[in-house]
Design brief:
Distance between the termini: 40 Å
Strand content: under 5%
Order of helices and strands: HHHH
Structural class: mainly alpha
Number of helices: 4
Number of strands: 0
Oligomer: single chain
Helix content: over 70%
């Protein structure tokens, strides 16, 4: 994305990334399913998902720490409008009352 100079390049990069993820995901899932017994597959996939999520969170925290150490406290200063847009982007939009029953066990 750093070298992209327009929306076409960004689209191409994202498209290639999604194809690569599709190739990796299916082979990883096959290896995981083949290495576990039928009764242990759910635990194996759950553990994989939990570790993947934990790794993503630790990765973001590590990058934030590195940026803070290199740039100092001023690296996280941003305009009020930018902060508001970031908050609005992260508000989940798909939770409606008629869909909440799917979330309950």
């Amino acid at each position: 994305m750093l070298l992209a100079n327009g929306w076409g390049a960004v689209t191409g990069i994202r498209f290639g990334d999604r194809i690569g993820k599709g190739i990796r995901s299916s082979s990883r899932d096959a290896l995981l399913a083949d290495s576990l017994g039928p009764k242990e597959r759910g635990k194996g996939f759950g553990l994989h998902r939990a570790l993947d999520t934990a790794g993503a969170m630790v990765g973001i925290a590590l990058v934030a720490l590195i940026v803070y150490l290199i740039e100092g406290a001023g690296a996280f200063d941003m305009q009020r409008n930018t902060y508001h847009m970031m908050v609005l982007v992260h508000i989940p939009g798909g939770y409606r009352r008629d869909r909440l029953h799917r979330l309950r066990p």
